[in-house]
Design goal:
The complex is a heterodimer of chains A (about 300) and B (about 750). Helices cover about 30% and strands about 25% of the residues of chain A. By secondary structure, chain A is α+β, with helices and mostly antiparallel strands. Chain B has 17 helices and 31 strands. The chains are: A alpha+beta (about 300), B alpha+beta (about 750).
């Protein structure tokens, strides 16, 4: 038997979470895990999906504050996300199926902490922070430091993810997320990569960040992406270097979806393509969201 | 030659008869049924691949609150069954031979109570050696899946030994001499993984007893076979078992045969309540004895420098899994596909169906054909390359054609394979320049029509409204449309004037079910015969009324009129009203199934009647693919599917069949494959067993080479349901090989495998 409460305020939700209730919004992870026998439904659930406090997408002076229960479908259609935090729109547009995207939330994706989560790598390259609140107060943790392992985060049991805070990106910056997929719908990332590229006024790369999906126990950032890319044109040698850097960072497993060898190779390809797409966007190439449906093998015809 | 320039159905297009209730959600499926007092059924599965049961204690399950019945093998008649070899029982006795074998079953007030009862059953196993590799399982010292195989009752025509459940061969001419005479000999070995029918509706069964009679609602493609299975295993006469199939949510062969109807009927009898079983998706993957078998296919072909095939030798190993189900004829069918629709004077092909501790294999849409055709058509491109011939040219040179003699000595009447190849190549733009990451591949295929007995009634009631009472089963094949068309045309009425009543073994005459592409082919014949009897009645009534000879009465557009004088007429509605006061308008029909053609010069060991085919269907698929060279991901962009299935009765439905078959073929080509570990399926879930989605579907251009075929179905129709699932994977393989250079000889051709072959 599961106890199910519908929180009418954030305070009520926090109080219940402090008592040991597990928060639920879209339920796309909890319910599917229960149905497939991976994990039974928690004994006590508190629904947070109707809380106005958690459902906003608000521009702030520092950047964008995205409520935890904002759905993937809403993110992929929100113009400010598409314009300024494009990798996150790319990723949101690829999650699961239309019905998954209509109920699945960004907060749920972040807290579920799957190494194959699509929104994680974009949040890392965009320097996002996860906003955690409990009855004890609020704190923020950088996305790059947030995931501790498959299904594990640094959040305390009584902390609720209430929002994602993404800082304004510098002028001349753009981002993209690309993933390897075996089919064009109902898919999970085999591997993926997000890239952010910052250009100066003359179109030269002055900063970059690359993060990888499904090649390690958590989302991981590629070390020294700026050092690899800064000041260089995106010629084949540069792209090979970033691909190699990504493959070196990867510590993938072999499972049903791919071998470790194939994953390590493909994450390099994805990193290269993410950098190319981000660079393209930064230089005015209108690559539509998501990249996977705009270019390459998965493009719409 | 009666080939239409292009297939045009000038009659008004039929709206799919069961479409509106399906798309509006009012259609009831088995899992939707609710009855007062109904209980939930749950099974305990082996969950190990091969083990001896050392202890089975269900006493704890009986104590769980809400439990009404708990059954094991000890509670049921000791009946061994299966087509071909009686090698299995409803519940495991002493030994479990695959992970999905049913060990016990419970019925309880809720799913949760049933689950708790299952969890309370104690079963201990002594592990037995897992037979995992069908090739190794043929060795003399290999552990046996069925140590007592020789004691099982079996069809005397089967050749079996140890783990080889069935051996068949076809041979004609002198292969050794042919190979010696050939200019070039090409050999290849191809390995295909197993796959699944994967219907979107997991199966469901409801059983309710009234006295000594049981009614069973089930998601079966073959209600009469389901009934007969219940009768055989529970030892009941056929008139005490009524099987009804509500709307069926897809089958693709996976719901052929009988499966869990007897278990649920036995539970309902023990519980004295109606009982419902609904499978989870995982159960749907592991438990039924219908899945597409993995195969190892070896082919050697001798060819002359001018491109003429002179000899072929082949050997196929089919992974039968733990029990034979309906697979006894698969070896010979596989051998026919290794031969293929080619003129080959000297052949010798053998095939072995081998027991393993995997899920039993059985009929899945065009059983054995997609894998063997993928291998043979891959091989065909390799042979063509070896003599420097274009693949299309090579097929045109060697394919069977009207009046030619096929590989087993069957001479063909009018067939359209050559036209299929020409049209597919033309429509696909064979030879045109393409981007360097795209290529076109072609493959051809064939498939038999299956003549079997079938029956139907047709009646018109007092208002002239018609009913077709048929044993036929609709599983998406289009019977709901074609049968109405045939009856309407026979009676000068419209398809909408008829409702179909069926999928009920107590109401309709026998039909073998939605299997073997046979509904239109055989039940169409029955409906035409039944409607013909009503037409005769109508002509006699009209003759009296119009003072004419019955022979001069024409039924057309809802009226009966005298030939040549349309004004002298009476409406069918009026005639129906007259009949309602006298002799009722009722027809029954069955008709004689077409005879199997003669063949010459072929010898078969373990013959299962597959060396000669009635009204064979032919196809050619041309497929354009795109390859991501960095990752090995392949996408199918366009498919030209050209089919000779004889006369097409319902063009819209036929196109739908082809598109669906092509999509299934694309899945088999690229993504669908079962992964085993310790004899158990590791990807028994829709996230890891990757079906193609609507977003992946290519543009499919379908054409029919329509030849009214003698000795076939109504109006010269052949079957069509399975034929579209034969050639696609082979065509995809040939397109991929043109892009990769090195050929991938594993199926499915997953991105990682394609990437590996590119080095």
């Amino acid at each position: 038997m599961t106890e199910f409460e519908i929180a009418s305020s954030l305070e009520e939700a926090l109080a219940l979470v402090a008592e040991g209730y597990r928060p639920i919004a879209g339920g796309t992870d909890l319910v599917v895990a229960a149905r497939t026998g991976r994990a039974p439904l928690p004994g006590r659930l508190v629904s947070i999906e109707r809380l106005d406090e958690l459902s906003g997408i608000e521009p702030t002076t520092e950047g964008l504050l995205i409520g935890a229960v904002v759905t993937h479908a809403r993110l992929m259609r929100t113009q400010s996300v598409i314009d300024d935090f494009t990798a996150l729109a790319d990723a949101s547009a690829l999650v699961g199926s239309p019905s998954t995207r209509n109920v699945g939330t960004i907060g749920g994706n972040v807290m579920n902490a799957s190494p194959a989560m699509d929104t994680g790598a974009p949040l890392v390259v965009l320097n996002a922070e996860i906003v955690l609140r409990s009855t004890r107060g609020e704190r923020r943790v950088a996305a790059a430091d947030f995931w501790a392992g498959p299904g594990r985060t640094v959040a305390e049991p009584d902390e609720l993810c209430v929002a994602l805070a993404i800082p304004n990106q510098p002028d001349g910056s753009a981002s993209a997320y690309v993933r390897l997929e075996y089919r064009r719908a109902m898919e999970i990332a085999v591997v993926g990569a997000a890239a952010r590229v910052d250009l100066d006024g003359r179109g030269r790369i002055i900063g970059a960040s690359v993060a990888l999906t499904a090649v390690a126990p958590t989302i991981v950032a590629v070390d020294g992406a700026t050092e690899v890319l800064a000041g260089r044109s995106l010629d084949p040698a540069t792209l090979t270097d970033i691909a190699d850097a990504a493959s070196r960072k990867a510590t993938p497993i072999s499972d049903l979806r791919a071998s470790d060898t194939y994953r390590r190779h493909c994450v390099g390809v994805m990193a290269r393509r993410a950098v190319e797409a981000a660079f393209g966007r930064a230089t005015g190439d209108p690559i539509a969201v998501p990249v996977n449906r705009s270019t390459g093998i998965g493009a719409a015809r | 030659m009666a080939i239409a320039a292009e297939s045009i159905d000038r009659r008004p297009r039929l709206v799919r008869a069961d479409g509106p209730e399906k798309v509006t959600g009012t259609a009831l499926y088995t899992a939707d049924l609710r009855m007062t007092g109904m209980l939930a059924a749950k099974f305990l599965f082996a969950e190990v691949a091969h083990a001896r049961i050392t202890r089975l204690d269900v006493s704890g399950a009986r104590l769980v609150p809400g439990v009404f019945a708990v059954l094991t093998a000890a509670d049921l008649p000791d009946v061994r069954y299966s087509a071909g070899v009686a090698d299995r029982t409803l519940f495991a006795r002493d030994v479990v031979r695959f992970e999905g074998e049913v060990v016990a079953a419970v019925a309880a007030v809720t799913d949760e109570a049933a689950r708790r009862a299952i969890d309370a059953i104690i079963v201990d196993y002594e592990p037995l050696a897992i037979v995992d590799d069908p090739e190794a399982a043929r060795a003399d010292d290999a552990p046996l899946v069925h140590p007592h195989w020789a004691d099982y009752e079996s069809d005397p025509s089967l050749v079996r030994h140890g783990n080889v459940a069935a051996f068949s061969s076809i041979a004609r001419g002198d292969v050794d001499a042919g190979m010696a005479q050939a200019d070039v000999v090409v050999a290849g070995r191809y390995v295909a993984d197993g796959s699944h029918a994967a219907p979107i509706e997991p199966r469901a069964v409801v059983a309710r007893w009234e006295g000594e009679k049981v009614t069973i609602w089930t998601s079966s493609q073959v209600p009469f076979a389901a009934r007969d299975g219940v009768c055989e295993t529970l030892r009941l006469p056929t008139n005490r078992v009524r099987v009804i199939v509500p709307h069926l949510g897809g089958g693709f062969g996976g719901k052929c045969g009988f499966h869990f109807e007897p278990h649920v009927a036995a539970l309902a009898r023990a519980a004295r309540r109606p009982v419902k079983l609904v499978f989870t998706r995982r159960e749907e993957f592991i438990a039924p004895d219908r899945r597409r078998e993995s195969m190892i296919i070896e082919i050697t072909t001798g060819v002359n420098n001018d491109g003429t095939i002179v000899a072929r030798r082949g050997h196929v190993i089919l992974d039968n899994g733990a029990y034979i189900a309906d697979a006894a004829f698969f070896p010979q069918l596989a051998a026919m596909h290794v031969a293929g629709p080619y003129v080959i004077p000297n052949i010798e092909i053998s095939a072995e169906l081998v027991y393993t501790n995997h899920q039993p294999s059985g009929s899945v849409r065009a059983p054995t054909a997609p894998q063997t055709t993928w291998a043979r058509e891959s091989h065909t491109d390799e042979v063509a390359a070896a003599v420097g011939l274009d693949p299309v040219e090579f097929r045109l040179l060697n394919a069977v054609d009207t009046a030619k003699i096929g590989p087993t000595g069957q001479t063909y009447d009018e067939i359209g394979l050559i036209e299929c190849i020409r049209r597919a190549a033309d429509s696909a733009g064979w030879g045109r320049p393409l981007p360097d990451d795209e290529a076109i591949g072609v493959a051809i295929g064939w498939w038999p029509s299956f003549p079997v007995a079938s029956g139907a009634y047709v009646k018109l009631d007092s208002d002239g409204a018609g009913q077709i009472i048929t044993g036929a089963q609709e599983c998406g094949t289009g019977a709901v449309m074609t049968l109405r068309r045939l009856a309407a045309d026979e009676l000068g009425m419209q398809p909408d004037d008829f409702q179909i009543v069926g999928q009920d073994t107590a109401v309709a005459p026998y039909d073998v079910g939605a299997t073997g592409s046979q509904t239109l082919f055989n039940n169409g014949r029955a409906v035409v015969a039944a409607a013909g009897q009503v037409a005769e009645q109508l002509r006699n009534l009209a003759a009296d009324r119009l003072e004419a000879s019955a022979a001069d009465i024409v039924l057309d557009s809802g009226v009966a009129h005298v030939a040549g004088t349309p004004d002298r007429n009476v409406s069918i509605i009026e005639l129906a009203a007259i009949a309602a006061r006298g002799e009722l308008l009722i027809g029954h029909g069955s008709g004689q199934p077409p005879a199997t053609p003669e063949i010459s010069g072929t010898t078969c060991v373990g013959d299962q009647g597959m060396a000669a085919w009635v009204a064979p269907q032919f196809s050619c698929h041309a497929v354009r693919v795109k390859l991501d060279r960095d990752t090995g991901v392949v996408r199918v962009l366009e498919v030209d599917a050209v089919h000779d299935s004889g006369t097409i009765i319902n063009h819209l439905g036929a196109v739908g069949q082809v598109e669906g078959g092509v999509m299934m073929g694309v899945g088999q080509a690229l993504s669908e494959g079962t992964v085993y570990g310790d004899g158990r399926q590791r990807n028994a879930a829709l996230l890891e067993y990757k079906l193609q989605t609507a977003a992946d579907s290519p543009t499919v251009r379908t054409q029919f080479v329509e030849i009214a075929t003698e000795g076939a179905g109504p109006r010269g129709a052949k079957g069509l349901a399975e034929a579209p699932n034969v050639a696609t994977a082979g065509a995809v393989a040939n397109a991929i090989a043109r892009l990769t250079g090195e050929r991938l000889r594993r199926l499915p051709m997953t991105p990682e495998r394609v990437w590996e072959v590119m080095g």
